[in-house]
Amino acid sequence: MRCPLPPRLALPGLLLLLLLGLRPARPGTGAAARFQPTWESLDARPLPEWYDRAKFGVFIHWGVFSVPSFGSEWFWWYWQNQKIPKYVNFMKDNYPPDFKYEDFGPLFTAKFFNASQWADILQASGAKYIVLTSKHHEGFPLWGSEYSWNWNAVDEGPKRDIVKELEVAVRNRTNLHFGLYYSLFEWFHPLFLEDKSSSFQKQKFPAAKMLPELYELVNKYQPEVLWADGDGGAPASYWNSTDFLAWLYNESPVRDTVVTNDRWGDGCICKHGGYYTCADRYHPGHLLLHKWENCMTIDKFSWGYRREAGITDYLTIEELVKQLVETVAYGGNLLMNIGPTVDGTISAIFEERLRQMGTWLKVNGEAIYETQTWRFQNDTVTPNVWYTSKSKEKLVYAIFLKWPISGQLVLTQPNATAGETEVKLLGHGQPLSWTSLKPNGMMVQLPQLSIHQMPSSWGWALKLTNVI
């Protein structure tokens, strides 16, 4: 049977201790440890600087759900638990009556998966980090987990360590930071369901499955982003999240560089952890004091690949650039998701969007990477103008998404000084002329360019030197 089952009964020492309710002693987790297993201590950890400088990453949702590739990556849940008609009918129309979700496992072939090709496409996107779903709520790890002994990508389906192949390719061929998503819970795992029936007074599932897998994942692949998800309604105390994070920050091989999000148990989101996600496709609409991330999808309706998606179901490059610019102006990072096919290919529409974003960033990345928020996030008079800054260099960037018909761009927030302020259009070498406006602001005379002379096609950035 290939359904996610409880792991081997011959339990490793760590696992036995966890099942007995004991936390194994580790060097550095006592009084001398830098971070204690409390939210007060863990939340005080400074976020590694690379993450804020990066601004843009790519999310990759891939798993057994990519076999039916219909509706959503939550296919199993919608079909078996909620019995939503379109999912039930899809199975009736395409599979035998006795077909079970675990029967999709052998069909997850990944036969065209080429980690080097993926790495090259990801590098071309202009992203600075990637996050791969190492295991989604269906419980199928994309590596040979010792704790999911007959339901993982090495024992079933591809018969390959997907996580390792991508990790090696990304680290050997790109300058991207390698990250992993991990779902804490699994919809139908017997131990999780048993714990849930006890109102999470029992902790068999985190002891037997989740915690050992997380330690295994970090030690084997050393992700610099650990993107937790799926608390199943259980609190962080059930997941032993603070103990794990204390180990991650104090003793793990990535203790100095790893960043984590805020999905470590019911009630943690937007409150505890490294950076905040708050919700899928989150956009606060105002400046947040805490670092945050907008995780979103190119496919408007699904994180996993959908065979039935039409062209209008995908965000255009103009919409994606707008998302990136707004997110960075408000102090966030954009994590833009793609869903590979069951064969392991990145479909043409996703590859095109990734390469388009890379093309835009080659010209305008200076206004995105390593920037900070400015005193204004957007122009209050001229629409579709967003601001970022580099305070050490006394630079402000005005990113505008619509080229004015008049050829004159009014910026009401920056105040310029004659003889000191210089204005340049990124991708166009010559300084631009400008005039001061009363009582505040400036008007920039944009160059007269043909469509073929435009430095970019979906948004432009002005570099303003010495403005206040």
Brief descriptors of the model:
468 residues, alpha/beta, TIM Barrel, Immunoglobulin-like, 2 domains, 7-stranded parallel β-sheet, 5-stranded antiparallel β-sheet, 13 helices, 15 strands, 16% strand, globular, disordered N terminus, FUC_metazoa-typ, signal, hydrolase, glycoprotein
Portion of residues within helices = 25-40%
User: What is the CATH class name of the largest domain?
Assistant: Alpha Beta
Give the ordered list of helices and strands: HHHEHHHEHEHHEHHEEHEHEEEEEEEE
Strand order of the largest sheet: 5-4-3-2-1-7-6
Structural class: alpha/beta
% residues in beta strands: 15-25%
The tally of structural domains comes to 2
Supply the CATH architecture of the largest domain. Alpha-Beta Barrel
Q: Number of helical runs? A: 13
The CATH topology of the largest domain is: TIM Barrel
Described by strand count, sense and barrel closure, the largest sheet is:
7 strands, parallel
What name goes with the CATH superfamily of the largest domain?
A: Glycosidases
Specify Rg, calculated over alpha carbons.
Answer: 24 Å
Q: So what's the overall shape?
A: globular
Tally of extended strands?
Answer: 15
Oligomeric state of shown chains? single chain
From the N-terminal CA to the C-terminal CA, the straight-line distance is 67 Å
Average of per-residue pLDDT values? 93
- Contiguous low-pLDDT stretches (5 residues minimum) are 1-31
